[in-house]
Structure formats: structure tokens, C-alpha cells
Design brief:
The complex is a heterohexamer, with 3 copies of chain A and 3 copies of chain B. Chain A is mainly alpha-helical. Helices cover 82% and strands 0% of the residues of chain A. In chain B, helix 1 packs antiparallel against helix 2. The chains are: A mainly alpha, B alpha+beta. One adenosine monophosphate (AMP) sits at the interface of chains D and B. One adenosine monophosphate sits at the interface of chains B and C.
């Protein structure tokens, strides 16, 4: 219980609540768009660099390689069963987009989890950052392939999506590239490089995370406010219930799968938590951008609202400490 | 002054590269683009506040006096808008020669 | 293509929520909004450089083919502009159906 | 509503002060300005991504109902555009009196 | 005297002058708008957090509560006499807006004063930050009420202002909410939280204040350059003299009132200076934004120019050390 | 050789490569425009402040004054011979604009060179920052005078350029003013002032330089990609070869001239390298902005592409260590 409370009372989480509160009282508090975007770039840059330096200081062993392999598999596997589960409740395009969204990861949830571990003084390994970077793309590709296979037959859709453009979007998406690139540079320059950029990359990290989560609180709460509208605009007149349920149950289900993998790999407490968080979190940057290009018929009012307005805060507030409690109980 | 058409297209920002590819294909060299346009339409509110850029629109203005090209442009824009939303308006104007 | 009206409104940014409330009331679902527009008019220069957002304008574009709604919109916009300044232009256009 | 002309000018941002000086000279008090417009034209792509501001355009909108002033404005804008590029469009509109 | 010189030669003030100089030589030097806005958010966040942590470390006593009460009273009282004094020289709406502007406070003037105290090594208490946050709103409400009472009879104006919207704007204005929220979070997380965000909140403070004042120098000097135009555009053909005089005399008058209150409360040197600065300073963010909504008939060329182009630099350059000298002389 | 490698493997350079790579794989990675602009303002502010503090701590001597004089002469001289050399291969206006571009300097190349020296632990003097600031303007004026003299006779051009506006642009250009102003403020406030802003001005410097060079890598690579288009759009149908050659040979030639001056002045290793880098680098902020106003007939596809897409990366990657090797060999 104390772990829940100490999570909720950390400055970043409290700033997330401040952002939510601002929307609730209809304040005009707002982080300018370019600053919010830059804060997100900063987080990717910093976490990537830190991860790379950490890798440069450790030895490459079997657990590391197997974890990376497992992470990629997870990112490809989650969309498959998610799609199968959801296709009877959602339009096909939406089911495929949601599947891709939940197979991929949320960098900020991951970053918050590392902050949570640091706060508790629990060790974690830099290669988990690599795992995160590698999990962004496969889900996108699997999601599209599923739609193409099941949806294509019916409606002949997607045929004019260029596979080249899609692959590029999946692999060289701005956030994927920045985190991979920063990791590579951190790995090359090692402790020497870290010393030079430490004040930016390490010292400011938690403070800037507070500001970023303030913005995320605002954005998520606005989206949540749009939810009833989402329902009425849906041309099919479906109810919102499947959406809400899926957004709350999918992270739990995926966390379980991630947990199983972590136990199988024999990961340490910190690493296990991060892998579970990766499994449980859903993308709201890379995947939605890719989906607009590859699957514009999917309704962002479904997949984006689910990941941003429900799953993201849920993981932040309850998920991380809950997964942690489960791991402690198991290990 | 020569008579021409103003074509205004509001489209979501991730689709802009596809639109510009269409311009290149149809040999339309001139356009102006306003990024970070917000809006609302059939697909709900777009607040331009998301990190994916997904909720931001762009407004593209094309002045053109070649009716054949305009026809072709409208034909090519239609499916883009049909798939991902947005609007396209056509109006008359006079173009200052310089 | 269907004929429609383009309504362009330049209004100071703090008044935008009031304008959008008007849209909602009149059931006008579609608009596009360009934030951070500078300008000059009867009330002096607006440089969009102040922290209060007070000196920044927004440009709102509405395409609409329902003349009754347009009339009502113009009526509703008039007092807003009269109180806090700005302009409203109406022009003809063709709307690409998609 | 009174009939007026909409004048739209796309010009590179470093030239904006020169354009506004022209407005002052011709006693044109009202304009709206959208900064950071990208574009493409005879002089290549302008991505608005350079630190010199050199590759960014601005879009300036002027509503005016005085034909004499409009004529003079067009005359004054022409050499600016001829030297540094850009476009100027003239169209008809109705101005909402308030 | 030396106190004036050391104030003027501190880096933040010198950067303010650099901004003014840039406008005078018609340079194109400019801080991009979103960055300027973010610097202002940063200052509110940092000062709020610092204040909250300071409160968490001190005990709540009578002086603190009386100071907070006094600050709120001040913010409600100043608009009353200001309105009475000004209504014969200014249009009614302008008088009301100016009254609200001077009853409220300028966070940056406050922040600069805390920097000035830190520089001289003089102690001040965190709850003054709370006083500042509480002084933003009452003035707005009093200003509108005054106008409604005196102006409403004549012209029937303001009737369509929604009181709900107005109260929301006064109480949950972006800057009010951010400072109150950050203070609350600082108070909850205390020294522990501070340790995590210290590099952002404390170490960078003075450097970023320099950049922010550079921008303020530019903005204020531009506004000052608009002054002659303000005169000619005024449809009533009034002279500018009342405007200039009011912008210079009101801070002095309000400082006196603040000083009396500080003596009455028996505040320490540092706290007394901050309370006086709060009284003497005028808002140029929260109040102008609220006035555009509630009193659009008031001319921002009056109230905004007065507070931004005259009172703000005056307080920064001469006011702070002068008030300090007066306090020293009294205590 | 090792000096080349250690230059190439420093974090800032590696982030430059990451930016280039992002364009090559057509990623959508992008630093928002206002942030990029602010990073550039930050670098000028920080380097100016540091330089000013350094000057305040050293004594003004003959070498310093002669170096400043030499730098100004260099900035006026380089455009003359550059114009003479280029006018047979380029349209007159382009030749003049290129001449001004190469006479002026690139602040970021300078900043990277100081980072390079710091990395190797080699001393350099703060007044070199003053030299840089002084070299921005003369080249602009000389370039325009040359064009007016040679081009004016033929075509009667430029007559309607206001000299006042031009001088203002040359002397009070935003970047010139910011660096001069920050230097002055650093000089006035000295070590005391530095202590207050050190976390921003010194500690974050290398980290933020990384982010800025990431952006420069993106911008330079995009420009490079535009090169073939530049050729075909040239109404005169000229080949691109002169452009490429000039952009590669001019820095080498100018570096030689700078080297001769450095030897003449008897500068230390670090100072000599900085002077050579100033000579060899070309402007892509101040001069292009001034040229659009004063010489709009010149094609930015020539001068801007040359300085940004070729000379800038060339100096960064090969130039700095090569000039350093030459200096070591000579001294
Ligand atoms: N009637 C309209 N007038 C102006 N802009 C519109 C209109 N309808 C849609 N838009 C713009 O097009 C975007 C996408 O519209 P939609 O596809 O209808 O959701 C909106 O976010 C608006 O920016
Ligand atoms: N004639 C005009 N043409 C274009 N925009 C205008 C015109 N007049 C006013 N505006 C815009 O409307 C805003 C408010 O105008 P005003 O209420 O006249 O001060 C100005 O800042 C401009 O952005
Ligand atoms: N046909 C056009 N339609 C819309 N905008 C144009 C057109 N041609 C040029 N522009 C704009 O004007 C700028 C300069 O054009 P140019 O001088 O032709 O290179 C471009 O960057 C565009 O923003
Ligand atoms: Na996941
Ligand atoms: Na006050
Ligand atoms: Na040079």
C-alpha cells in the first residue's frame, strides 16, 4: 500500500494531477505545443543516452540478448491476440489499430517507471531502454498485416498503402530514431560522454518530467472529456462500454503476459518491472502517427483515446505499483 | 492581374507529405502551407495539442490559372480527403503579375 | 462541387472560446482555426508577443452551405466583434465533395 | 455588409517590415499577419526551418473597400514581390459591419 | 545608493536593459513567443514549488495567517481607492480595468525582488509566495463589481458577462493555478521533492530569469514606443498625461499602503519588502486576459501599457531598492 | 589522426550525424522551429557571457587589441578577394553575397571549436569571442559596397536600398546584438555574475549543443538534398560544379589567410585555432538575413546552400582538427 502512496505523491505524478485538475476547472493553463513536443524529445534523448552509457558499462550476456528477443516477440505477439479478442466488438480497422497501439509502448510510462525505481533505490539495466526502442516498430507492422489479411479480402482496402512508406514510418519514426540514435551515441561515448552532458541528461531529468506530465495531464483529461462525444459521433451508434473495458483490461492482460516472460527469463526485480510496464503500456505517439497514414479508416477517437486518456493514466497511477507488488509477490 | 483560382485545402498534418507528392506529380510548383491549424469537423475536434502531430491540421493554399491542372488536382485530392478527412474549397481571384 | 460561403473571422485569441460556443449553439460543426495571428486595426497593433495572449489574434475559417445558419452566425458574431474588435469577411467558394 | 476586396500577400518574412512600411505610407490601418508560413515557388522550397528566418514566409491579409488605396497598394507591392518573390491575390468579399 | 547600483548591475536587470536597447536600435532580436510563454510558466512553477517547500519546513503561525489575510484585503482594497481616484480622469471602463490591474500583482516583479533579497543575503519566508498567489484574483472581481455598479446604471453594460466565467477566469486563471498547484505540490513533497527537482527549480533560476527579462525588456520597450499612437487613436482626444502620471504615482501610493500594513503586521525586513512589492506591482498577465473577456470596452492601450511599459520597469529599476531603503529607515 | 577521431566521436558531432541520418532515411524527426531558434539564442548568450567574464578576468594588452583589429580586417578583406575570384563563375549578385557570407563567421562552428579545445584541455582567451562578434558586420557592408560598385554601373540596381537600414541590419542584427550584449554584461558582472548563471551558461552548454547540432544536421542535410534542384531551377542553366568547388576551397583558402595572421600575431595554440576557424567559417544566420534585404537578387540557393550544407559540416568534421594539425605543425 505504501508503495502506491509513495508513487502517487512523487512530484511528477502530482503534476500530472495538476494538469487534470486544470482541465476539470476549465482553466486556460497550457504548455505551448512546441515546448511539449520538445520535452518529449528531451525525454527520449535523455533516456536513450543514459541507456546507451549503461550498456557500454555492462557486458553483453545471454540474459540481455534473450530479453531483447523476448521484447520484440512480445511486441509482435500482443497485437495478434488483441486483434482476435477485439474484432467482434470493434470495426475491423479500429481493432487492428488498437492492436498495434497496445503492442507498442509508451516511452513516458517507461520513463516514469525508471523514476519510480530510482526513487526506491532499485537497480535496473540500461539494455531495457534498447528493449523499449525495439518494441515500437513490430507492433505497427503486425497490426497492418492483420488488417490487410482480414480486412483486405472484404473491402479491398489498404491496397494503395505503400509498404515502403509504412516500413519507413515503423522503423524510422522520429521517436524511434531519436531513442535508438541517442542510445548508440551514449554507447559510443560511454562514461566520458556522459560526464559532458550529465547536467542536462541526468540532473534536469525529474524536473522536466514534472513539466511534461503536467502537459500530459492536460492532454489526457481533454481527451477524456471528448469521450461522450466520441460515442455520439460514431456512425455505428455503438456504446462506449467496449472501449472503456478494453482500455482497462488490455494493460492488465498484457502485464500478465509480460510477467510470465520476465519470470521465464529470470529477470531481476527492477528489470522485470520495466518489461512488464513495456508490455502493459500503449503507444500514443509513434503508432497513432503511423496509423493515420496506413489505416486512416481507423478512428483515432478509439485507439488514441484509449491509450492516452485511460491506459496511460491507469498505468501511471495504479499500474506501476501494482505490477511491482505482483513481481515482489512472485519473486 | 490575371484571373486564377484559389484552392484551399485543410488536411491533417501527417497527410501533408502525400499531398505535396501529388503536387509534384501534377507539376504544381507553387503552394503556401500554414502548419499547426486547429479545427473541428465530422471527425471531432482537433486541438493540435498532441505529440503525435495527429491532431494538428495544415492549411494549404494553391493559386493556379491552369484549369486542366486544377481539375486534375481536385481529382487527386478527393481520395486523400475521403480517407482521412478535411476540406477543399475553390474560389476565384486575380493574381498580381510581377 | 457544391457552392458555399467562406466565412473568415479575425478575433482576439481570448475571445475564441466565446466564438466556438456560438458555433456549438448554432450547430456549426466545421471550422478551422489558425492561432497566433498578428495584426493591426482600429485598436492598434497586435504583436502576439505578450504573455497574457491578449495581443494575439486567431483566424477562424468556416465553410458553410446553409444560408440560414450563415445569417444566424453573422448575427451572433457581430456583437462579439463590436465589443472586442476584429473583422468578419464573407466570400463565395465551391466545396469539393468527398 | 459592405462589399470589399481581400488582398492576400505571401512574402518572405524578412521583407515584412518593408511591406508594413508601405501600409503605413498608404494609410492602410488594418491587416492580419500569419507568421511562419512554408511554401514552394519559382525560388524553390521554403521550409521555415532556418535560423536566419530566411526560409520562412508570412501571409498577410488586408480587407479594404477603397479602390484607390487598393490600386496604390498593388502598385507598391509589385516591386517588392518582383525583387524577393512571393504572390499577391485579389478577391471579392463582403465585410460584416459591426 | 549602493543598493540601487547593485540592483541595476545584477545580470537579470542588465538583460532587461539589453532588451530595451534592442528595441531602441530597432534590432530584430526576439525571443520566440512560445519560449517566452514557457519561461513565464517556468518562473511560476519554480517560485511556487520553492514557496511550498519553504512553507512545509516552517510552522503555521499567526503572523503567517494575518499576512495572508492582509494580502487578500490589500488586493481588494487597492482597486477601490484607485477607481475612486481615477474615474474623473479616465473613461469608466478604463478606470475599473486600471484599478483591477494595480490591485493584482506582477509575479516577475516579485520574483526579481526575491532574487534581490537572495543577492543581499536577506531572509524571506515561503508563505509570501502564497500571498502573491492569493492577490491575483480578488482585484479582478472587485474591479468588475465596481464597473458594474457605477457603469451599469448609466449604460446597462456588462449584463451579458457570465459571472461564472468571470469567477473561473479570476480563480483558475492559468498563472494562478500553476503557482497555487506548484506550491501545493512543493508543500506535499517537501525537502524530499525539492532534492529531486532542485537542478531545475533552483540552479537554473537566475539564468532563466535573465532570458525572461531580456524578453520583457523587448516587450516593454515596444509598448512604450506605442504610447504616442495610443494617444492619437483615443477617440476622446484626451492627453496622455494622466496615464503617465497614474502609472508612476500608483505604485508609490500602493507601496505606502503596503508599507503601513507591513509595519502593522510587524514583518521582518525581507518579508516587508516582498509585501510592499506585491502592493506596488501591477498585473500584466492574469488581469489583462480577464479584462478582455469581462470588460472588452476598456482600452488595453491604457491599463496594459501602464503596467507593462511604465510601472513594471519602474518597480524593477527604482522601486525595489527604494522600497527597501524606506523599510530600512522605518524598521 | 587520433585528433580527427576524437573530434568525430564527441557527442555533439555524433548528434550532427544523427540529424543527417534522419534526413537520409526520410524520418520525420524534427526539432520544433522556435526551439531551434532558442537553442541558437542560448548558444550566443552563453558564449558571449563566458567571453565577457573571461575578459573581465584578464588584462587588456597589445595582443588582444591587435587580434581584434586583425579580425575586423580579416572580415573586410576576405570578401574582397572572394568577390574577385568568384565573379567570373557566378552572377554578380551571387558573387557579392557569397563574398559577404564567407567574410562573416559561423557562431556554432566557433562554439564547437571551443568545445573541441576544452575537450583537449587547451587554453583559449575570452577576447576571441569579441573577435567573433566583431567579424559579423564588416563583411556584410563590404559585400554590398562591392556589388554596388561593380553591379551598380551596369544595372542601376541597389539604389533603393536604404543605407541606414543596411547598416542597422549589419550592426544591430539580433545575433550580433545578443552576443555583444551578453559579453558586455559578463564583463560588467564578472565572476560574481558568472556564479549566479553558471548552471545555465556552463553546465548545460555541451548538452544543449548536442541538441542544436542534431537540428543543424537535419537542416544541412535537407539543404544538401535540395542541391540538384538548385541546379535545374537556375534560370541560367549553369552547372553546380563551381558552387561545390567554391564551398570546399574557400574555407581552406580563408583558413590559410587566418593562419598567416595568427602566426603574425604570435597567438597561442588555442587562440590561433579559433582565429583560423573564424576565418574559415561562413555565416548562415546574420548574413543571409541581411542579404535578403539588401541583395534580394542574389540566389540563396547559392550562398546559403554553400555555407550551410557544405562549408559548415566540412569545418565541423574535417576542418577543425585539420586546422589544428596545421597549427601544431607550424608552431
Ligand atoms: N465546414 C468547415 N469549415 C472549415 N473547416 C472545416 C470544415 N469542416 C472541416 N474542416 C476542417 O477539416 C478538418 C477535418 O474535418 P473532418 O474530416 O470533417 O473531421 C477539421 O479539423 C477542420 O480543420
Ligand atoms: N482591414 C483589415 N484587414 C485585415 N485584418 C484586419 C483589418 N482590420 C482589422 N483587422 C484584424 O482585426 C484585428 C482587430 O482589429 P481592430 O478591432 O480594428 O483593432 C487586427 O489586429 C487585425 O488582425
Ligand atoms: N502558385 C502559388 N500558390 C500559392 N503560393 C505560392 C504560389 N507561388 C508561390 N507561392 C508562395 O510564395 C513563396 C515565394 O514564391 P516564389 O517567389 O515563386 O519562390 C513560396 O514559397 C510560396 O509560399
Ligand atoms: Na505494450
Ligand atoms: Na498590486
Ligand atoms: Na569567415
Amino acid at each position: 500500500m505504501s508503495v502506491f502512496l509513495s508513487n502517487l505523491s512523487s512530484p511528477p505524478l502530482l503534476f500530472f494531477f495538476l494538469g487534470v485538475a486544470a482541465v476539470l476547472v476549465r482553466s486556460d493553463l497550457e504548455i505551448p505545443a512546441q515546448i511539449a513536443k520538445s520535452l518529449s524529445l528531451y525525454l527520449l534523448f535523455a533516456i536513450g543516452f543514459k541507456g546507451g552509457v549503461a550498456i557500454s558499462e555492462s557486458t553483453i550476456d545471454a540474459t540481455m540478448l534473450l530479453t531483447l528477443l523476448g521484447a520484440v516477440t512480445l511486441s509482435a505477439l500482443i497485437p495478434v491476440y488483441t486483434f482476435v479478442l477485439l474484432r467482434r466488438w470493434f470495426p475491423l480497422a479500429d481493432a487492428a489499430a488498437i492492436a498495434a497501439t497496445y503492442g507498442s509502448v509508451s516511452a513516458v510510462t517507461f520513463v516514469t517507471a525508471t523514476g519510480y525505481l530510482d526513487m526506491l533505490g532499485i537497480q535496473w539495466s540500461g539494455y531495457l531502454v534498447a528493449a523499449m526502442a525495439l518494441m515500437e516498430s513490430p507492433a505497427i507492422i503486425v497490426g497492418i498485416v492483420l488488417y490487410k489479411y482480414y480486412g483486405g479480402q472484404q473491402r479491398g482496402a489498404v491496397q494503395n498503402v505503400s509498404w515502403k512508406a509504412l516500413l519507413r514510418e515503423a522503423l524510422f519514426n522520429g521517436s524511434v530514431l531519436l531513442i535508438l540514435g541517442s542510445m548508440l551515441i551514449g554507447w559510443i561515448t560511454g562514461a566520458d560522454g556522459m560526464q559532458k552532458v550529465e547536467p542536462l541528461v541526468k540532473d534536469l531529468f525529474l524536473g522536466l518530467l514534472c513539466l511534461f506530465l503536467l502537459d500530459m495531464g492536460i492532454v489526457a483529461a481533454r481527451r477524456f472529456g471528448d469521450l461522450p462525444a466520441t460515442k455520439t459521433t460514431g456512425s455505428d451508434g455503438r456504446s462506449m462500454r467496449p472501449l472503456l473495458l478494453a482500455a482497462m483490461l488490455l494493460p492488465a492482460l498484457n502485464a500478465l503476459v509480460g510477467l510470465a516472460l520476465a519470470v521465464l527469463l529470470g529477470l531481476s526485480e527492477g528489470n522485470a518491472l520495466l518489461l512488464v510496464v513495456l508490455a502493459a503500456s500503449a503507444s500514443y505517439i509513434a503508432v497513432p502517427a503511423a496509423m493515420r497514414l496506413a489505416l486512416p479508416e481507423a478512428n483515432p477517437g478509439s485507439y488514441l483515446t484509449m491509450s492516452l486518456a485511460i491506459t496511460f493514466p491507469l498505468n501511471l497511477l495504479v499500474g506501476i505499483p501494482a505490477y511491482h507488488a505482483a513481481i515482489r509477490w512472485l519473486l | 492581374m490575371k484571373p486564377c483560382k484559389r484552392i484551399e485545402i485543410v488536411i491533417e498534418t501527417p497527410m501533408v507529405p502525400a499531398l505535396i507528392a501529388v503536387f509534384k506529380e501534377l507539376d504544381i510548383p507553387g503552394y503556401s502551407l500554414i502548419p499547426e491549424v486547429r479545427g473541428s469537423g465530422d471527425r471531432g475536434v482537433r486541438r493540435a495539442d498532441e505529440l503525435s502531430g495527429q491532431s494538428s491540421n495544415s492549411l494549404v493554399l494553391v493559386a493556379c490559372d491552369d484549369m486542366v491542372k486544377i481539375e486534375r488536382l481536385l481529382e487527386a485530392v478527393r481520395p486523400l480527403l475521403a480517407r482521412s478527412g478535411g476540406i477543399c474549397l475553390l474560389s476565384d481571384a486575380q493574381w498580381l503579375r510581377h
